Amino acid sequence: MLAFLIKRTANAIFVMLAVAFLAFVIFRFFGDPVEMMVNEQATQADRAELRERLGLNDGFLTQYARFVTNAAQGDFGISYRNQQDVMVLLKERFPATFELVLVATVISLVVGIPLGVVTAVHRNSRLANMLQISSIIGISLPSFVVGIMLILLFSVSLGWLPAFGRGDTVNIGWWSTGLLTPSGRMALILPGIALSIFQITMVMRLVRAEMLETLRTDYVKFARARGIPAARVHWRHALRNCLMPVITLTGMQIGNLIAFALVTETVFQWPGMGMLFIQAVTFVDIPVMAAYLMLVSLIFVVLNTIVDFTYAWVDPRLRDDTARAGGANG
């Protein structure tokens, strides 16, 4: 078990170092930080002094080591556009993105799991076929198309829900939430649905595949032979054994939702990290771009590492395979 933990931790550190190198290359070679930070009246001496103060005259490896050290401490410098600390900007935007991802995840589970059970139990029915076709459409449509269609229907045509913005928020310490206000909850509905469509189809298809396999097992046949109601067999006994892969998928997809929420946030003008990243790309705000890349990668790595550790704890065969592979390499 110790060898497995060491290997997975080393892999996670290696991935983060590789991402840090990519972020550093973007930071170092895409645009001149000095030209972006000084005003037009700055003299050449002012530029040279700022370049020396930022350490841009040092060697490549020295600058990379300094970048990794500062990144590990949460220091990505000052935003060129906002003239604020980058981590302060991300800290202000993270609650909006997290709440959007949380709502999208809840919607995907609440909708996707029952649909997956229905399509598995009634797999030859017309309803199941319609849901299967809808899932193919849902997994194929880009999220920005879904968002625009939702805005046209529920905001422009019906006027039921807001088309953009986060609504009113409440500050709890440094955390801002819209879940405690009516307008904040209303503002979450459309972007939450748009972001969850792809996830709904994935959960539905996964639950369907797992249910079809579970319904063929002996214990389900035995439960039916005992006269247990079909609804109880399906929704209690069979479904319970299908949830582990769903939980795993959901945990790993949270990183994807955070990373790809930038499209949804742009469509709905949602003030989250994705919107901040799009603005950073527009204005070539390199420190914000590098920090966003590092933060999203860290979320991916942490979630995947937690899943690996959980699997190793649940299934000892993974630990044994790792130990045998290590012994063979030795």
Describe the structure in your own words.
The chain has about 325 residues and is mainly α. Helix content is about 75%, strand content about 0%. The chain contains 14 helices and 2 strands; from the N terminus they run αααααααββααααααα. A hairpin with a 2-residue loop joins strand 1 and strand 2. The chain is globular. The mean pLDDT is about 80.
Distinctive features:
330 residues, mainly alpha, two-stranded antiparallel ribbon, 2 strands, cell membrane, ABC transporter permease, transport
Map the helices and strands.
Layout lengths: L1 H28 L3 H5 L6 H10 L6 H13 L13 H36 L4 H15 L2 H15 L12 E3 L2 E3 L4 H33 L3 H8 L4 H11 L2 H25 L5 H10 L3 H29 L1 H14 L1
Antiparallel strand pairs: 1-2
Helix pairs in contact: 1-4, 1-13, 5-6, 5-8, 5-11, 5-13, 6-8, 7-8, 8-11, 11-12, 11-13, 12-13, 13-14
In short:
The protein has 330 residues and is mainly alpha-helical. Helices cover 76% and strands 2% of the residues.
